[in-house]
């Protein structure tokens, strides 16, 4: 062990100051956060010295249980893990890490004196990305750590890029629905709020997919005339033809979303949202998402007809097997948010996101409808109004409902 310690000193002496050492105050940002788990104090100290001198922040733990608890509170970038430890061996520690959605992406490198092929196979089966046999070479440890950190960072950057791309695509679809039908936008917002609450209360994994499904569950209704949606969803007085169109909207939404990468599950939730039977106990994400959507929509429809929210929940409980009780129980204490509005008459230059049009926005000449009454304004829609105002003119002032306390730039004149 002393020979290894001298090797650490030798290999790091000529490497120049590490990022952590470069600052006289010692406050430089570490390159990464690495967790070392080994029941041998000498191994912990040796690895901690090596990695710290390379500019990494290191947390050391002699027991797997302690490491699991610490990792769940503060995610590391990489874990070096021994196998033979008391209480819980490294295989079990790794399996528990990989069973946790939050911890599973963290790369685990096993370091062990076990050198049999079956031990290495078991390590990879448990979820490890590499295996280093003790006694280890410090240069090898350093090289493998850097390689796996680089892979982890690259994957994280790619994931962040994909998520931003996905969010942009979803926002575009939501804006399309917004522009097509104000009612769709308002109902989608109400459903999203309810589903987000249920998913959080139930601690469902990957809650983002349920939120997206709720945001986009009515996207297929862009093919319906606005009055057909109102008749079928809100008023419950749709004609046979209107009802037929409304019942087809989940398949339309499915076709719009199914080809978007990572939205396959969300698309399936939307396709199944009108299914008659409840499959909550099946533990399938798509079927559970469909149950969330179906329950939220039925509650939303009833509250739109004037039924108090918790009374509506009680009514659904009275239909056993159709709406999962666990979902209704998760909504105890929940009430739809209510925003108080005030009516204002504003020029197009003073419009703000969140305002709701009280009248159609129409052009000065010809009376072309730019945006329909009832639409909740977004940045994109405001740009549309202002572009028409500059090029073709729109009838101003524009009457809107604005959330109380919303800011209005008083320096802009209000047209008479």
Provide tags for this entry.
416 residues, alpha/beta, Rossmann fold, Hypothetical protein af1432, Molybdopterin biosynthesis moea protein, domain 2, 3 domains, 5-stranded parallel β-sheet, 3-stranded antiparallel β-sheet, 17 helices, elongated
Task: Give a description of the structure.
The structure is a single chain. This protein is α/β, with parallel strands linked by helices and 416 residues long. Helices cover 52% and strands 10% of the residues. The protein has helices at 2-13, 19-22, 41-53, 64-73, 90-99, 117-126, 138-180, 182-202, 207-216, 226-235, 240-247, 249-257, 264-271, 285-304, 309-317, 325-330, 379-391, and strands at 33-37, 57-61, 78-81, 108-112, 130-133, 341-346, 356-357, 361-362, 369-371, 398-403. A five-stranded parallel beta sheet has the order 2-1-3-4-5, sandwiched between helices. The protein has a three-stranded antiparallel beta sheet with strand order 6-10-7, with no helix packed on it. Strands 8-9 form a two-stranded antiparallel sheet. Strand 1, helix 3 and strand 2 (57-61) form a beta-alpha-beta unit. 31% of the residues are buried.
């Amino acid at each position: 062990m002393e020979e290894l310690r001298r090797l650490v000193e030798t290999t790091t002496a000529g490497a120049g100051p590490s990022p952590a050492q470069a600052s006289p105050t010692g406050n430089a940002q570490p390159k990464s956060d690495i967790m070392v788990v080994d029941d041998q104090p000498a191994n912990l100290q040796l690895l901690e010295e090596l990695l710290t001198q390379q500019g990494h922040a290191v947390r050391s733990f002699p027991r797997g249980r302690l490491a699991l608890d610490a990792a769940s509170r503060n995610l590391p970038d990489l874990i070096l893990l021994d196998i033979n430890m008391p209480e819980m061996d490294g295989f079990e520690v790794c399996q528990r890490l990989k069973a946790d959605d939050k911890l599973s992406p963290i790369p685990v490198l096993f370091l062990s004196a076990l050198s049999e092929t079956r031990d290495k196979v078991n390590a990879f089966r448990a979820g490890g990305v590499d295996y280093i046999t003790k006694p280890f070479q410090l240069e090898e440890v350093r090289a493998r750590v850097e390689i796996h950190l680089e892979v982890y960072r690259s994957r994280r950057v790619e994931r962040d890029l994909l998520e931003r791309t996905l969010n942009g695509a979803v926002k575009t679809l939501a804006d399309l629905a917004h522009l097509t039908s104000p009612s769709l936008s308002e109902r989608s917002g109400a459903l999203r709020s309810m589903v987000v609450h249920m998913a959080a209360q139930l601690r469902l994994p990957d809650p983002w997919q349920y939120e997206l499904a709720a945001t986009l569950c009515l996207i297929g209704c862009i093919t319906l005339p606005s009055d057909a949606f109102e008749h079928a969803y809100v008023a419950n007085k749709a004609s046979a033809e209107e009802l037929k169109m409304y019942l087809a909207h989940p398949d339309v939404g499915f076709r719009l979303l199914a080809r978007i990468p990572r939205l396959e599950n969300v698309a399936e939730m939307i396709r199944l949202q009108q299914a008659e039977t409840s499959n909550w106990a099946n533990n399938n994400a798509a079927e559970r998402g469909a149950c969330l959507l179906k329950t939220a929509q039925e509650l939303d429809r009833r509250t739109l007809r004037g039924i108090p929210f918790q009374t509506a929940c009680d009514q659904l409980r009275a239909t056993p097997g159709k709406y999962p009780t666990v979902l209704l129980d998760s909504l105890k204490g929940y009430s739809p948010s209510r925003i108080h509005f005030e009516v204002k008459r504003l020029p197009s230059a003073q419009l703000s996101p969140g305002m709701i049009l009280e009248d159609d926005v129409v052009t000065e000449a010809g009376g072309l409808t730019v945006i329909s009454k009832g639409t909740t304004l977004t940045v994109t829609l405001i740009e549309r109004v202002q572009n028409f105002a500059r090029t073709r003119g729109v009838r101003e002032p524009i009457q809107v409902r604005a959330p109380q306390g919303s800011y209005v730039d008083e320096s802009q004149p209000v047209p008479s």
